[in-house]
């Protein structure tokens, strides 16, 4: 490469790292294929309260100034959370006097982007943490997802994998965890078997990991065995999503496996295992999260810190 070409490449790289801003159109979240079987005829009413600290109020942050066409991210979440649950057979009401009230107190809710150079992948990290209040019960609801893409021809290529997919998955995961704690509806065994068949049939698909996460959304313990099998898949993204789905299902008996998986792996597999451990929400998982919070991993790795902080 001649000197002029080197200069142009360096200039492009610097442009990607600083002073550059992009706008992205966020598509409506894609509905899950999960349908809860035989729900009772009870209406649920949602109330969302934004209690994020001032420093956490900015929804889109990172190395690139990225503007998203979401006017109010809390209203966006409420709208599509209700739509997602309706698609699964949950009855959403509007009158708190006659329906079952469910309150979400939002503590963390943002999407962070990162790119180390103009030639490296563009990553986003979708972060969500809220306290769910249902009568006298309180539960921590979390979501965390990392996705990346190297733009080849245009920066618009990162819009779907880095924004639409993580935001859509956040809505589905929050809906699943709200259901698990409040309505406790379960997808049928037939739906679990269908998803397992679909995952095998689409093994070469770039987005097959989405079906793996759907197994977690079923709230059906029958999904645990196929998810354990998928933690040994050749594709690390499939593995990571299988591990995450065990947490969404709150498969507490798999906590020793998840702790060992965390210790043996790196990068995405490691922090998704940590997220699943946090989701177990029992004395043993709390003790492990405390140990990680006081470890070198927490000090040195931003993703580990982000995941741990969702549970505190």
Low-confidence stretches: 3-19
Structural class: alpha/beta
Q: Give the number of DSSP strands.
A: 8
Q: What's the helix count?
A: 12
| CATH class descriptor of the largest domain | Alpha Beta
Provide an overview of this structure:
By secondary structure, this protein is α/β, with parallel strands linked by helices. It has two domains: 18-185, Lipoprotein like domain (Double Stranded RNA Binding Domain, 2-Layer Sandwich); 186-312, Leucine-rich Repeat Variant (Alpha Horseshoe). The protein contains twelve helices and eight strands. Strands 2, 3, 5, 6, 7 and 8 form a six-stranded mixed beta sheet that branches. A two-stranded parallel ribbon has the order 1-4. α9 runs parallel beside α12. The radius of gyration is 20 Å and the shape is globular. Mean pLDDT is 91; it is low at 3-19.
């Amino acid at each position: 490469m001649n000197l002029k070409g080197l200069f142009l490449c360096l200039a492009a790289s610097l442009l990607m790292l600083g002073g550059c801003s992009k706008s992205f159109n966020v598509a409506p979240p894609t509905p899950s294929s999960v349908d809860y079987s035989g729900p009772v005829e009870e209406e649920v009413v949602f109330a969302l309260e934004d209690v994020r600290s001032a420093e956490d109020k900015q929804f889109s942050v990172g190395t690139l100034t990225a503007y998203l066409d979401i006017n109010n991210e809390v209203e966006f979440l409420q709208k599509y959370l209700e739509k997602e649950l309706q698609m699964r057979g949950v009855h959403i009401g509007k009158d708190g006097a006659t329906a079952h009230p469910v309150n979400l107190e939002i503590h963390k809710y943002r999407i962070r982007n990162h790119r180390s150079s103009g030639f490296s992948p563009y990553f986003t990290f979708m972060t969500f943490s809220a306290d769910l209040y249902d009568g006298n019960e309180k539960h921590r609801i979390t979501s965390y997802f990392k996705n990346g893409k190297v733009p080849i021809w245009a920066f618009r290529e990162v819009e779907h994998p880095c924004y639409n997919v993580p935001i859509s998955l956040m809505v589905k995961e929050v809906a699943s965890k709200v259901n698990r704690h409040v309505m406790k509806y379960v997808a049928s065994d037939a739906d679990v078997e269908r998803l397992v068949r679909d995952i095998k049939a689409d093994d070469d698909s770039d987005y097959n990991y989405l079906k793996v996460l759907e197994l977690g959304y079923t709230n059906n313990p029958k999904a645990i065995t196929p998810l354990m099998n998928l933690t040994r898949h050749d594709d690390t993204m499939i593995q990571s999503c299988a591990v995450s789905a065990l947490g969404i299902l709150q498969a507490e008996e798999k906590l020793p496996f998840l702790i060992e998986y965390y210790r043996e792996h790196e990068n995405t597999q490691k922090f998704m295992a940590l997220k699943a451990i946090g989701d177990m929400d029992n004395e043993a998982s709390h003790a492990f999260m405390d140990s990680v919070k006081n470890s070198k991993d927490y000090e040195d790795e931003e993703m580990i810190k982000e995941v741990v902080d969702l549970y505190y």
